[in-house]
Write a structure and sequence with these properties.
- The complex is a heterodimer.
- Chain A has a single domain, classed as Beta-grasp domain (Ubiquitin-like (UB roll), Roll), CATH 3.10.20.
- Chain A is built from three helices and seven strands, in the order E-E-H-E-E-H-E-E-E-H.
- In chain A, strands 2-1-7-3-5 form a five-stranded mixed β-sheet. A two-stranded antiparallel sheet of chain A has the order 4-6.
- The longest helix of chain A is centred in the C-terminal third of the chain and has 11 residues.
- Chain B has a single domain, classed as Up-down Bundle (Ferritin).
- Chain B is globular, with a radius of gyration of 20 Å.
- The longest helix of chain B is centred in the C-terminal third of the chain and has 30 residues.
- By secondary structure, chain B is mainly alpha-helical.
- Chain B contains seven helices and no strands.
- In chain B, helix 2 runs antiparallel to helix 3 and helix 3 packs antiparallel against helix 7.
- The chains are: A alpha+beta, B mainly alpha.
């Protein structure tokens, strides 16, 4: 008999600007930002479509994530470690520095890529 | 002698034209004017690009005359929003980008592309022609319209939050726009729900008096036959 396996879970360690940290468990089919909201962690967000960069984080070290739900995400973003939490699904455990909107926008500027300014 | 609260222009000297009391007063109340301006320009970009893309989406709702009418209302009202935001940007000491390409690139919401088209990864004109030949499903277009409205609601809610109790002029404008975006969302939920799922989810609204009436952002009377 076939049994449906439960979606894999990954541990996401969130590091906030004040150096506080929280670790949450996230299913592979769950958006990281929504998982954080469910755990009562209030992270910045606006468009919720992977576009405006408000929810940007930066992955420290190695890690894998699916960003295919984002409306605008460049290979250069990934290479620089930036993750849009509103549309990201974890594919491994991750360490994420939160509140990285300005850093991501600056990196886009350096790469000559478009970004909202607000 | 007692001084009146908020009445002294200590920041803006007499006959100084380089500063605006209308800006300094909201700054004194805690508004980060520079950040607000960036958000307003991003939002204006989103309204403008949405107006443009809704034109294309409307054309591709060919044969669905009722949907076209509703799309037309949303399209014209988004243009009205752009025209409402722009004077406020200049009033606050900001400006629109000189190059429309810069303006579109910094829009705060995604491009409302025809379903199946991705401006980032595919070649434009050929792809659009191919999509049009295959005839886009109305439900897919309605979904694009719906998600565009949802992004606008999130944006204007944020601007309302930033200005509430501090910058009544921007707040009033943002609230008017938000009112219309909320109505647009309700329209597209109603249409998509029946078109895709066969489920009735009424918006609860009566029709606009004229196409793109924009009762909130143009301060018009509500349709009341």
């Amino acid at each position: 008999m076939m049994t449906e396996s439960a979606p894999k879970e990954h541990q996401i360690r969130l590091i906030f600007p004040d150096a506080m940290e929280k670790t949450i468990s996230v299913h592979e089919d769950e958006l990281v930002l929504l998982a954080a909201f469910r755990k009562g962690i209030d992270l910045p967000s606006m468009c919720l479509q992977g576009w405006c960069l408000t929810c940007a984080g930066r992955v420290e070290g190695q890690g894998a994530w699916d960003q295919s739900a984002a409306r605008r995400y460049f290979e250069e973003d990934r290479e620089s470690g930036f993750i849009l939490l509103c549309t990201a699904k974890a594919r491994s455990d991750l360490v994420v520095r939160t509140h990285q909107r300005e850093a991501m926008r600056d990196e886009r500027d350096r790469q000559g890529l478009p970004a909202p300014r607000g | 002698m007692a001084t009146k609260k908020h009445a002294s222009d200590s920041v803006v000297k007499r006959a100084d034209l380089t500063k605006r009391v209308g800006v300094e007063q909201i700054r004194a109340r805690g508004v980060n004017v520079e950040h607000l301006l960036e958000l307003l320009v991003d939002a204006a970009g989103a309204e403008f690009t949405t107006y443009y893309y809704y034109t294309i989406l409307r054309m591709n709702l060919a044969g669905k005359e009722d949907y076209k009418e509703i799309c037309e209302d949303a399209r014209l009202e988004d243009r009205a929003h752009f025209e409402l935001i722009t004077p406020r940007i200049y009033e606050l000491g900001g400006k629109l980008p000189s190059d429309i390409r810069v303006f579109a690139d910094r829009a705060g919401c995604p491009d409302a592309f025809l379903p199946g088209y991705s401006g980032v990864t595919e070649k434009g004109v050929q792809t659009v022609e191919k999509i049009q030949q295959q005839s886009v499903k109305a439900a897919d277009i309605l979904e694009v319209l719906l998600e565009a409205e949802r992004c606008a609601i999130r944006t204007w809610s944020e601007i309302c939050d930033l200005t509430f109790g501090k910058d009544p002029r921007t707040y009033d404008m943002a609230a008017r726009i938000l009112n219309e975006e909320v109505e647009h969302e309700a329209w597209f939920i109603e249409l998509l729900s029946m078109e895709r799922d066969g489920v009735s989810r009424p918006s609860g609204h009566f029709r606009r008096g004229d196409p793109g009436d924009a009762p909130y952002s143009k301060n018009r009377g509500f349709y009341n036959p």
